[in-house]
């Protein structure tokens, strides 16, 4: 009988999850100070170099275990399949593009709102996943339904609910995933 072994099958996704876990633990140990310094984007001086770093690193920070587990579950569910299909480099680019888009838009539009978490990356992965069976000249019904359900929910919640969730970063993440999915699959 062949021995079973554990494989590191999705280096970018697993690296992202483990780094996010370390950032969460550091945030708990520092009572949120590390998140404030490095893993949360908010309106700060453009003369401060950390402002630019936080445009990328805010996706690693989370507000608590529930926030982390919710995002990590989706990323671990969708990410390995996406990384296998598109490659590690492209998935890393999806994460980085989503981070900078959501970070910059939050900085420009919401001066008094801090943003942290990988929810934008989750929505990018969700929309990117719906393109896995895309063929040139066709729009998958799954993409249309996913866009209606997930993006529609975010628009509804953004208009009618007052909570601490950045629905715009979810929508922007979905847009990044849809654009990347279309561009990668139109060949």
**Rg for CA atoms:** 17 Å
Sketch the major β-sheet: none
Order of helices and strands: HHHHHHHH
Main CATH class: Mainly Alpha
Unreliable runs: none
Structural domain count = 1
Strand content: under 5%
Fold-level CATH name: Rhomboid-like fold
- How far is the first residue's CA from the last residue's CA? 43 Å
By CATH's scheme, which homologous superfamily applies?
Answer: Rhomboid-like
Structural class: mainly alpha
What's the architecture, going by CATH? Up-down Bundle
How does this model look, in words?
The protein is mainly α. It has one domain (11-185): Up-down Bundle (Rhomboid-like fold), CATH 1.20.1540.10. It has eight helices and no strands. Helix 5 crosses helix 6 (119-129) and helix 6 (119-129) packs parallel to helix 8 (167-185). The longest helix is centred in the middle third of the chain and has 22 residues, at 65-86. It is globular and about 45 Å long. The model has no long low-confidence stretch (mean pLDDT 87).
């Amino acid at each position: 009988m062949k021995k079973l072994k554990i494989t590191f099958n999705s280096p970018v996704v697993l690296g992202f999850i483990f780094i996010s876990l370390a950032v969460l633990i550091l945030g708990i140990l520092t009572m949120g100070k590390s998140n404030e310094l490095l893993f949360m984007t908010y309106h700060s001086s453009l003369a401060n170099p950390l402002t630019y770093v936080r445009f990328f690193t805010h996706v690693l920070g989370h507000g608590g275990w529930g926030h982390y587990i919710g995002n990590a579950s989706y990323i671990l569910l969708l990410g390995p399949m996406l990384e296998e299909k598109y490659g590690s480099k492209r998935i890393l680019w999806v994460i980085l593009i989503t981070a900078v888009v959501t970070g910059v838009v939050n900085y420009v539009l919401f001066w008094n709102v801090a943003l942290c978490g990988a929810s934008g990356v989750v929505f990018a992965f969700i929309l990117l996943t719906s393109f896995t069976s895309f063929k040139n000249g066709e729009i998958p019904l799954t993409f249309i339904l996913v866009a209606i359900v997930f993006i529609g929910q975010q628009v509804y919640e953004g208009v009618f609910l007052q909570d601490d969730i950045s629905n715009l970063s979810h929508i922007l993440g979905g847009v990044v995933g849809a654009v990347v999915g279309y561009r990668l699959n139109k060949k």
